[in-house]
UniProtKB/TrEMBL annotation:
Keywords: Disulfide bond, Membrane, Repeat, Signal, Sushi, Transmembrane, Transmembrane helix. It holds the Pfam family Sushi. The chain crosses the membrane at residues 293-314. The lineage of its organism: Eukaryota, Metazoa, Chordata, Craniata, Vertebrata. Residues 1-24 form the signal peptide. It comes from the Eukaryota. It comes from Hemibagrus wyckioides. This is Sushi domain-containing protein. Residues 24-87, 88-145, 146-204, 205-263 form the Sushi domain. InterPro entries: SEZ6_CSMD_C4BPB_Regulators (IPR051277), Sushi/SCR/CCP_sf (IPR035976), Sushi_SCR_CCP_dom (IPR000436).
Length: 331
C-alpha cells in the first residue's frame, strides 16, 4: 500500500485550514501561594479547553476539602482557582513523664518542640521533635533521675566521697595536699544535667613581703603571705598615701602595687598653666630694702606734719574764741 509521507499530510492540513479557524490559547498560569501543579509540563501556552489540576504544597492542606482544584482555558484566560491552602497542624504532643514539651513556635508545619525535664531529671534521647508533613518526627525522649559519673581527679589534692555514680544533688568535697592552696570551690554538687562542673586546682601560692616607707601595717600578719591573705597600711602623720592601702595575695601575686607615702610638707609642683592670655614679660618692680626704709621715713614725717598742723589749728581757734572781760575792756 502506498503511504504518503507525514510531512506531506502536515502541509496539506495547513493549506486547508483558514485563518479564522486557529484555536485560542492561554498563557501558562501562575502557580499561586502554597500551591503547585500536579503535573507541570513547563509549556509557555496551552490550547483552549486545556484543564490543569493543582494541589497544596508540602506542609499545607486545603482550607475547604470540597473546593475545586482545577482550572480550564476558556478563550484566552483561565477559570478561577478555588483551592486555598493553609499550614498543617501536627497537633499537641502527648504528656512527658517528669517533664514537658516547650513549643514557642506553635504546633504547625515547620515548628520545633523541645523536651524539658523537671528539676532533678535529665533528658535521655533526642530532646527536639519537628512538625513534618506527616506529623511529629522521632519519638518521645525519657526524663530519668539525674546521676553523675565520678568527677575528675586533681593534682596535689583529692576529693571525697569516692563513688562510681552520684545522685542528683549529691556533693563531693575537694582538699589539697600540705603546702598547696585550693583555688576554686571546694564543694561540687551533681547538677540536673548529669555532669559535674570543672574541679578546682591545688597550687603553691605565696606572696613576698614588702616595705612601705613612712607607713605602718595596721592589718595583716608578717610575711610570707598565703593565698587570699591581705595587708592594710597607713601613712605616718605628715604623709599622704598614693595607691591602694589594701592589698590581697592572689593567684598571680598582689592585687595591686605597694602604695607610697608622700611627704605633705614638700610643696607640690605646679601643674600645667591653664589656657588664657599670654602674660607680658614686664613685671612690676619689686621694692628692695633701701626703698622700703625711705617710704617708712616719708610716712612718719607726713604723720608728724599732720599732727603739728592739727595742734596749731586747735590752739589758734581757742585763742580767737576768748570773750574780753570788763576789766580788760576798761584799760
Amino acid at each position: 500500500m502506498w503511504e504518503t509521507p507525514s510531512y506531506t499530510l502536515i502541509i496539506l492540513l495547513m493549506c486547508l485550514m483558514k485563518p479564522g479557524e486557529i484555536r485560542a490559547q492561554c498563557d501558562a498560569p501562575s502557580v499561586g501561594e502554597n500551591r503547585i501543579l500536579t503535573e507541570d509540563s513547563g509549556q509557555a501556552t496551552y490550547p483552549e479547553g486545556t484543564t490543569l489540576t493543582y494541589k497544596c504544597s508540602t506542609g499545607y492542606l486545603p482550607v475547604q476539602a470540597g473546593s475545586s482544584r482545577s482550572i480550564t482555558c476558556t478563550g484566552k484566560q483561565w477559570t478561577e482557582l478555588q483551592l486555598q491552602c493553609q499550614l498543617k497542624s501536627c497537633g499537641s504532643l502527648g504528656e512527658l513523664a517528669n517533664g514537658k514539651y516547650l513549643t514557642p513556635d506553635g504546633i504547625k508545619f515547620g515548628a520545633t518542640a523541645t523536651a524539658q525535664c523537671n528539676k532533678g531529671y535529665m533528658v535521655v534521647g533526642v530532646k527536639t521533635r519537628n512538625c513534618r508533613d506527616d506529623g511529629w518526627d522521632g519519638r518521645d525522649p525519657v526524663c530519668e533521675a539525674a546521676k553523675c559519673q565520678t568527677p575528675s581527679d586533681i593534682q596535689n589534692g583529692m576529693f571525697e566521697p569516692l563513688k562510681d555514680v552520684y545522685d542528683y544533688g549529691e556533693a563531693v568535697i575537694y582538699s589539697c595536699n600540705k603546702d598547696y592552696t585550693l583555688v576554686g570551690d571546694s564543694e561540687m554538687v551533681c547538677p540536673d544535667n548529669g555532669t559535674f562542673p570543672p574541679p578546682p586546682r591545688c597550687l603553691k601560692i605565696s606572696c613576698d613581703g614588702f616595705m612601705v616607707e613612712n607607713a605602718q601595717r595596721i592589718e595583716g600578719r608578717a610575711p610570707p603571705y598565703k593565698y587570699l591573705e591581705f595587708v592594710r597600711y597607713k601613712c605616718n602623720e605628715g604623709f599622704r598615701m598614693e595607691g591602694s592601702a589594701f592589698l590581697k595575695c592572689e593567684v598571680n601575686g598582689w592585687s595591686s602595687p605597694p602604695p607610697k607615702c608622700i611627704d605633705t610638707t614638700v610643696p607640690i609642683p605646679p601643674g600645667p598653666i591653664p589656657p588664657g592670655p599670654v602674660p607680658t614679660t614686664s613685671a612690676p618692680p619689686v621694692p628692695n630694702g633701701n626703698t622700703t626704709v625711705i617710704w617708712i621715713v616719708i610716712g612718719v614725717l607726713l604723720a608728724l606734719i599732720l599732727v603739728g598742723g592739727l595742734v596749731f589749728y586747735l590752739t589758734k581757734r581757742t585763742h580767737w574764741g576768748k570773750v574780753p572781760t570788763r576789766n580788760e575792756g576798761s584799760t
